[in-house]
Amino acid sequence: MVAHINNRKHWFTFLQVQKYLVEKNFDWIKLNICSKSKAIKGRGKIDIKGKKYELLISYSPFSNYRYDRIFINDRSIQYEPNNHLYWDNSLCLYHPLIDKPYFQIMPLYRMIPWISEWIIWYEQWKIYGVWLGKEIKH
User: Fold this and answer.
1) Which of 26, 118, 119, 126 is such that its CA lies 20 to 30 A from the CA of 79?
2) What is the 3-state secondary structure (H, E, C) of the chain?
3) What pLDDT digit, counting tens, does each position of 12-36 carry?
């Protein structure tokens, strides 16, 4: 809880570090810090098996429940109870209580590789109707 409070108190420095770590490791993502919303906002395109996916990223210590909101900019990808999307169509990349370090945050740079995994499992889910990847039932 203390880390969460400090991340809000020192939000700009916290977001600068998160932005640096993502951009250092993933040059295909472009991020900006938005002072008005106190969040990182960004975009990136990822190519998986010849199909391009545009990602929209928001990350803020002021977001409820989890800092991340990562979306695939594709209207055909919509929430359904078993496709690992939240009701707002943001990606469910980890379980916010079980996978997160105890009383800590999930750093944005750690989530980026999970996006491509999510896409692969999502494409398989569309074919088979079952999530074949690792999951924790909600």
Assistant:
1) 26
2) CHHHHHHHHCHHHHHHHHHHHHHHHCCCEEEEEECCCCEEEEEEEEEECCEEEEEEEEECCCCCCCCEEEEECCCCCCCCCCCCECCCCCECCCCCCCCCCCCCCCCHHHHHHHHHHHHHHHHHHHHHCCCCCCCCCC
3) 999 999 999 999 999 999 999 999 9
